């Protein structure tokens, strides 16, 4: 597998990165299969530096906060109105009701225009599916809206994406033995953080250490958060292989 960090800014796009969007690629039936994990605010532009938007094969949305899904509106336009004609409907794995919420966000008309270019498939806790060369699994995480961590496996390699989450011991089991753990770290230990919302670098490190992951990639750091402080929090508890990702990073699994 190859992981490309298209956007990694937390909560909203920053000056040097779009919001959450991660491109996962693997060989499949003589070609490259392309799966997107989230398509957050501002990510549709830089995504075109990496692939043609018509070459997306599937999308997995961790949850429906704007920084993880709102550029679906732009992709709707591409899939519906491209001069080359509409491609086949694109599978979108997302929480139940995503079709209507995204349709309302764009402003499509009844019955539900968002379902014209996209085929929505509901994700629930414990969800599992085969998507091209990938096996997808989902675990619900603590967050103000229905949200999921996603595990992606192909050809003996594994990537776990935390999505947005507060601390949850189940994440240790879900990420167990992953080659790469792409984990949010929006908070710092020195702040008075609200519960069940996000992780600090130290909390992400605790999960990664307990899960014995190969590499920890910290993501979803908001523009107002000091990356050095996030890293310092992490290194107080974690001595494994890690990186604070930036937009454009490419990781081979």
UniProtKB/TrEMBL annotation:
A molecular-function term among this protein's GO annotations: 3'-tRNA processing endoribonuclease activity
Metallo-beta-lactamase domain span: 18-206
Top-level taxon in the UniProt lineage: Bacteria
Record keywords: Hydrolase
Name of this protein: MBL fold metallo-hydrolase
